[in-house]
């Protein structure tokens, strides 16, 4: 059993750790999958089962400024803004500028075309940010330390103990490893939501969004000699929230909180006919980032895994951002890692619903 799982305590590198220590590296949003994971992590911390060391934000789903604003409000809304710090990271990918993306999509139009931050103008001031439905944070402030500095200092202070939940583009982690390679052997593990191996991508026909947004960073981080687990679209495509699960979160009269109300407001399209959408009886939506925190807390949520050597294409063309999982070690310094293929959906949704419907504000120990 690994220290990422042994909630009662274990020894790693000679240091006793009673609960998993986590950095959440995220292209944060109010209560999409990143925001949901933030709420779940805070509830696990309140139970004494998780130690959230901080949230590092990167551009991806949204530009950095917007993601930071949403993360600050998220922690304040949950009542943990004074305990879980938010750190601003990379605003731009290591490569993959918008002009290149435009040329690729013009030459190779395919996939869903989800562009995240690139689909809207970059905010240049706070006045251009969009407030969450319940307003901006009023007293929770951004930490002075950058995301890269925080990752480096935290890993050094907790050698072999830190899990990084990498649920956005990998720019922050790549920069931390580039600038301070001495931290690499000290990272406990990285758990990703990213990649698409045997299924189509969700931005292009071949590429999943998180790794497509900064494929160079993905190539670099996947090559780090660190214990790594990938939760790709192959499994997230099979974990779908339906109306029954949605109603358990939003319509239980005994479990109404600011989180369940926001969940209904922001995720109700297709289920409750919100935001101009018609209610569709068989409507479902995929579950993405929150699978990583379930796997961290209990890897047996994964009912099928494979050991693979994983790489990402970072070259211009139709396969830019495409992930490949090799069954045997190819040349080129790739690392062997665990690829999750299937999840215990029923048990996961019990875990998911429970944490999203717990009382708010959270009371940390």
Automatic annotation (TrEMBL):
Record lineage = Bacteria, Pseudomonadati, Pseudomonadota, Betaproteobacteria, Burkholderiales
Spell out the SUPFAM superfamilies in the cross-references.
Answer: Nucleoside hydrolase (SSF53590)
Keywords from the named record: Glycosidase, Hydrolase
PANTHER family on file = INOSINE-URIDINE PREFERRING NUCLEOSIDE HYDROLASE (PTHR12304), URIDINE NUCLEOSIDASE (PTHR12304:SF4)
Domain Inosine/uridine-preferring nucleoside hydrolase, first and last residues per copy: 22-350
Q: What is this protein called?
A: Nucleoside hydrolase
InterPro entries on file: Inosine/uridine_hydrolase_dom, IUNH, Ribo_hydro-like
Q: Name one GO molecular function term.
A: hydrolase activity
